[in-house]
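User: Round two. Same drill as before: sequence, then structure, for each protein.

Assistant: Same drill it is. First protein:
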Amino acid sequence: MPSSFRCSSAAILACAAALCAGCGDDGNQDADGARALLARVQADGYRSWDRAPGWEERRASSGAHAKAVDIFVNDRVAEALATQPERAALPAGSVIVKDGYDGDDFRLTAIMEKRNDGWYWAEYSAAGDPSFSGHPNVCLNCHRTGNDFVRAF
């Protein structure tokens, strides 16, 4: 192999580290906003909302959030799905809440809220502490494959 194509493992690691440094940890961009969102959906009694289509009860999940999930949708989502089942996009004001469990142990809550500028994501520990909020790349990259960034239904 020509010397111009040879790389030492140290050089490869240095390149990888430089590339990853540009990514940064953008996971918790808006912790205060995330706390306010969680308080709002809890005050609204989100566990009494409609269940997402296909998620009428807790079921196993192969997604990143937990081994089993309950998914709830607010009235905006329920109305949009009832009137436009082949929807292109959900309207602003749509909220989807996912509670994640490992067995019977509650592990996390994840929330998507459709705003005028797109989806806002937040994920919380079982204690309610935000670990992701705003528009984190980890959320965007995974949900990009969904219909209007919604993957569950």
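Second protein:
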Amino acid sequence: MPEKHVIKHSATVQITNTISLLQRKAWNILLANAYDRLPKQDFFEVDIHELIEVLQFGKTNNEYLKESLKALMQSVVEWDVINKSGDKAWKASVLLANVEISGNTLIYSYSPMLKKMLYHPETYAKISLAMQNRFSSKYALALYELCVDFFIAKFGRGETPWIEIEDYKKLLAVEKDNYYSEFKNLNRYIIKEPVKEINEKSDLFIEVEYQRQSRKVFAIKFKISPNQNNNKLLDKLKRVEEATKQAELPLEQENNHINVKNMLEEYGLTRVQIKEIMDKHDIKYILEILDFVEIKIRADKIENISAFTYKALKEDYRPKKSLKEKLLADSKKIKAEMEIKAIEHEKLKNEADKDYSTYREKMVDDYLNSLDPADRQKIMDVFVNSLSGITKEFYYKDGLKSIIIKKALIVFMGDNYLKNSLQTFDDYFEKWLNEHAG
């Protein structure tokens, strides 16, 4: 089957992000299902099992689905938050107006005003359904949607307008969270981490710029270009997904803090509760409790999922193990400890890699600065001639101020002029470990 896309009016891409990652994905999928019939119908239908399959989410309990749908009905969204379309009118609506579950069929509708705004063929953005399922953070998905909108509007590359910090917090729905009133927290978790996830997992590459007033960051903008390292990412992801389709939670397959944090959010825990649990318990314990909660959900044994999950995590609701299970657990523990060591080693490599990048950049700068201007210009001419397409456009627009161009120059110099003087990463890492031991 050809890849599906959800088409959204450019203004609605900028909805305030008051819903969870799973709920946002579900709404996008419901819109994709209804889009062609928006002008002709008031109510739309979708098979619940197909919805769950496209979501790649292993929950089949109707009560859990109902909770997510009610959340969409209670979420008020605003469009033209940053006035991209030029329309000075302020408009707001709920994400879903009505829902009904009849057998295995979900019937739903939009408010007349929102339905009219959603169906606007002249101004739209295509959000890949395969792409949205790769994000583990709802903030990354929301930022990705915003950047896709401006990327398409500029026909191949583009940038957002300057977005004041308070408007950005509103777009990402953290304006009421005091934790993000301090810019360093906002910058780390709501700007840099989503940008990093988008650059690693999507077909876009984003660079963030900051505008300051009196030394304080006042606004930000995002420069958007095709991701040179992921231009065939969707094809790769589709092949992997077809080969590894499972009915379990996709986030359970990755044992790391970021995904577990998002899982706890999906179970309805607050930010304070999540921090309390993750500070007190290790990942293995949390996943075991969530496995137990999942069994109870499937058996329709829980009325309040978030309250039950929080209590289960605090009071250790794990079933008691038999001797055989304890022996198996011990073997798993040994394996887990080995995996943790491997993870720690990988973290050290990542830290060393940052220092290695700084080292390579300094070597290149020192070498170029040691040359007389004529020889240095000859090398730069050869470098520019080696560029092509949009990369060359970046060079003529921003020169070495562009991160992409700076990295390209370092690779070029390492391959052509500094082969014998630059240390390999393995050699650098070995020395780095000795210096940072203990």
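The domain at 5-226 is CATH 1.10.10.10 (Arc Repressor Mutant, subunit A).

User: Perfect.
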